[in-house]
Design brief:
With 99 residues, the protein is mostly helical. The protein is built from 4 helices and no strands.
Length: 99
């Protein structure tokens, strides 16, 4: 099967987009590791796996608040939960209890 010249260009562009997205994510994680306490960073990592859209919103919010100077020191897990609750707009947190 022979590739068309346009297919190779499209493939190359897509590969470049993926590499750029990976680099941006690595930069985001580096910044977040500095801004969050270890427990908060772990919680955010769990959110990333279970809800990528919420992860992007929450991580962007943390970075934006830091850039504005609204965050002092590192963000605790409790502060991260509060920011997530603000983003979710009243959605209740689900807890599972074993009896």
């Amino acid at each position: 099967m022979e590739q068309q010249p346009g297919d190779a260009d499209a493939y190359r562009r897509r590969l470049e987009q993926l590499q750029q997205a990976r680099e941006e994510e690595l930069q985001r994680r580096t910044v977040l590791r500095q801004l969050l306490e270890p427990a908060a960073y772990e919680r955010l990592s769990n959110i990333r796996m279970s809800n990528p859209e919420l992860y992007l919103k929450l991580s962007s919010l943390v970075i934006m608040l830091y850039q504005r100077g609204e965050l002092k020191g590192t963000v605790s897990e409790q502060q991260l939960k509060e920011l997530a609750a603000r983003l979710l707009g009243g959605r209740r947190e689900t807890t599972i209890r074993r009896v």
